[in-house]
Amino acid sequence: MDSFLKPLKASAGKKGKSKVSDSTMYERVVDDEKPYLVDGPDHNPRLQQEDMALKRRIRFLKLISRFLAFLISVAVFGMMGNTAFSYYSTSEQKKGTDNLSAWPDNTKTWPTLMMLGVSLMSLVSNAVVMLSYCCGHSSANKTDSVSSFFSAADMVVHAICWGISAGLFKQQSALNGVKNDIWSWTCSTAADERQALYADVVNFEFLCKTNGLSWYIAVANTVSHILSFVIFVLAIKRLKSKQKANATRAAAAGGVHIPFGSYNH
């Protein structure tokens, strides 16, 4: 009982309301390792069950979200890397009586390099979080907050980067009817006509399909960030349930106010 009253007395002795900073609030949302509800004179079984059930859902969705984001970034990085390699390894070659190149004049490579860069950024961030699972769930939570520059910012930045890159990647393909970017060129009839000359070094049909798939995956990545947003909302919901539990403790202790987070197990 004394251990329970200590935080109450300490809280009662403080003047004014404690103000929780945004960074502290974020840490409480992300770190769901320790339940606030324990057996005691103010124990509420229903709130305890709701809190634990919500925590399990949050952990499961976090794992699924991180794993999907990791797979998406690996897939896009692999396909864009292969496309870039195919281009740069053959861009200087000339074949045939007309001395034709495998690629159009003034090939636009930046859409491909942009997708490659975004996928690399996402790959590194997600890889760090996935590897941290080897050190336990708590380590993964902490690494996630550090590597992502806070969860909310991570969702916004990744959504913007993937959205813009997917949009520009699609928009630049056949811009104004000119197929001089790598994706649109590999799907063009002109590339089909030159395929026989370069059959031993590049497969335009394969690159056409993989670039198209990369675009669809980039668009689908939006779903991953929606899932992340849902997880964040659930974490906020759990935070509110902890605040409700604190209100229950305060009532059981005779109305003494307990600032959220001052009574931690």
TrEMBL record:
Keywords, comma-separated and alphabetical: Membrane, Transmembrane, Transmembrane helix
Transmembrane regions listed in the UniProt entry: 67-89, 109-134, 146-169, 213-236
Top-level taxon of the source organism: Eukaryota
Coiled coil: none
Cited PANTHER family: HYPHAL ANASTAMOSIS-8 PROTEIN (PTHR42069), MARVEL DOMAIN-CONTAINING PROTEIN (PTHR42069:SF1)
Record's protein name: MARVEL domain-containing protein
